[in-house]
Design brief:
This protein has 375 residues and is α/β, with parallel strands linked by helices. Helices cover 38% and strands 18% of the residues.
Amino acid sequence: MSGFVFNEKPIQIAEGDGVWVYDDAGNEYLDMGASYACVPLGHRHPAVDQAVKSQIDKLTYVQGSYPNAVRTSLYETLADTAPDPIGKVWLCNSGTEANEAALKFARAATGESKLVATMQGFHGRTMGSLATTWKSKYKKPYEPLAGDVDFVPYDDPEAMRAAVDEETAGVIVEPVQGEGGINPATREFLVATREATESVGAALIFDEVQTGMGRTGALWNSLRVPVVPDMITAAKGLGNGLPIGATLCRDWIAENYGSHASTFSGGPVISAAADATVSTIIEDSVPGNAAVVGDYLQTELEATLGEEVREIRGDGLMIGIEVGRGAMGHLKQLAMEEGVLALPAGRTVIRLLPPLTLTKTEADHVVDALEAVVL
């Protein structure tokens, strides 16, 4: 093959239906990774598919400087979902672009340059967001990156308070770290981070690229804690598989954002998909299912694997099983022997990010598969 983007897996996925995918030989797999949380409603969801088909018959694309009703509807839908007083929306094409915009907005709105990020955090692979990503394996080939970034230990309130000062433009933090190993932040840490940024006029950015769209049991993880950031970034599940990102902002950020722009910001077809995705997630109470089935799955995993693994942690349907350095081997066995597709989170953690429509019966299937592989 002539392409080089990823290390390809030995399964060629040809079709999908709900929480299941099928390879080119017709073999069935339970999709417990949802391609890194990108299909919260599952594959071939009729509401999203119909929205795309309907829009593509009318207008495929028009640049964002031309008003378009589909894009405007998405703006309104997203703004209505955000915690007050967040009410402005910037659309782009991916999570790293959403974070890139947020970092630029923080610097423009505050006039400062210093950024604070967390150890083990992951915010994307473009040059700006990569500078706030922790692991050197992602950064080393591209250094020097954009400077003036301080890293603090994740979930350490005192370290965060010490790092944020009058020169800080913004702090970017994942409410639950994804790539870093499925690490939920404590309420104390998030409150301390909000207090620290407010005390110096810095922007607080919640990276909800993975936790957003109901994954942790609320549409935004920000709604589960008494903390409202200045910006929320989203992507992955926002378009149920179509490429879109968003940066949701408070007014003081939007009024001083600088001159950021993107050619493909909020194209009509993508906007139609995202509007249908978000509306369906709300109308079908999908976050509630994620909370109930996620709690059930985590409880069953604890009962079955608890004494055999280091830790099981997470929120909603964002679950990490720390098994040690055998994680990659377990993932291969899960796929090839048990028909379950899951993800790594580093070398030691099996990451479960299924469609949020997962049922308890399907959760039982996952537990049985993991029992066969891990025990």
